[in-house]
Amino acid sequence: MVRKLDLVSYDRVNSNQAQSTEAVYLHDASLRTLTTEIISYQPVSSLTEEEKSLAKNISPQDSAITMRQTILYPQGGGQPSDTGSIATDQDQGPAFTVSLVRKTQDGRILHFGKPSTNTTFTEGQSVIQKVDNVKRNYHSRLHTGGHIVGLAMQLLMPEMKKVKANHFPGEACMEYKGLLYNEHKPQIQANVNELVRQDLPILLSWVEDASDLEDVEGRGKDRDGPVRVASIGGLDKNPCGGTHVSRTGLVGSITIRKISRQKGISRVSYEVAPEL
Q1: Calpha distance 94→98 (Å, rounded)
Q2: Based on the structure, what is the number of domains in the chain?
Q3: Domain boundaries, position 187
Q4: In the sheet that 238-239 helps form, which strands lie side by side, from edge to edge?
Q5: MF terms per GO, please (predicted)?
Q6: Is 167 found in the same domain as 94?
């Protein structure tokens, strides 16, 4: 029997004990639509303070939906979240516009946004997720671009330790412990251009032992379970939960914008074209 969810008196205990959302995007980032089921639907104002902190710029009048599975990427690992929509029928328009996706500590994935007028959702209801294809492609190219910059640096200066990665539009950069200067920029750019030109495959796998991986973008080494690893043509290994294009050539032109330094940390800022 399908039970209608009460947005005002939603049972907090059941919410906290709800099963984790299956992150389908980790296994198949090519999917742009997915049929799944509603677990919960509630106003942002009824979330816990911890959950609200995941969506500080979202209006309390907006709503949050969790589902059994999702193909929408939640913000994290230096990558912004997907946007998209949730429909109740294949032949109708979106019933809910997704503006932000975030993952909770207990593995639930919250889809924040606004429902269409008079839209209601019920527990167990079948819905269709759709990903904003243009934005997903751009974020994937930007994320893969960061890995290319990282590999270019690894090949050029293997002694430089990567300490941080950011793949947000307008902020994309890779940070390293040590000092880099403007004279390094042409060398890094040349290595990046060559890796794009070679059109190397982006290989994704899962490993149980992450002791030899850099803990920058992916899951921490202190967490249980397998770790997802991204590799460019087998030349590197990075823990990574983000979305990627399938080959380096699909990223398009990568521009090393500038190199800056602060307190012994060097930042290599980069960008890719929003559209190819």
Answers
A1: 10
A2: 2
A3: 136-218+225-272
A4: 202-207, 227-232, 238-239
A5: alanine-tRNA ligase activity; ATP binding; nucleic acid binding
A6: no
Single-letter amino acid code for the residue at 262:
Q
Length of the chain: 276
> Model-level pTM?
0.88
CATH number at residue 173: 3.30.980.10
Q: Is 178 inside any structural domain?
A: yes
Residue with tokens 């751009």: 138
**Do residues 33 and 95 share a domain?**
yes
How much of the chain exceeds pLDDT 70, in percent? 88
Phi, psi values for residue 183, rounded to 5°: -65, -15
The answer to the question of residue 61 being in a domain is yes
Longest dimension (CA), the chain: 67
Q: pLDDT (tens digit, 9 = 90+) per residue, 1-43?
A: 333 343 333 333 344 445 789 999 999 999 999 999 999 999 9
* Shared domain check, 193 and 105: no
Residue 1 belongs to some domain of the structure: no
- As a whole number of angstroms, the distance between CA 167 and CA 66 comes to 25
Token pair listed for 137: 């492609």
Residue 6 belongs to a domain: no
Q: Where is the domain boundary, 131, 156, 189?
A: 131
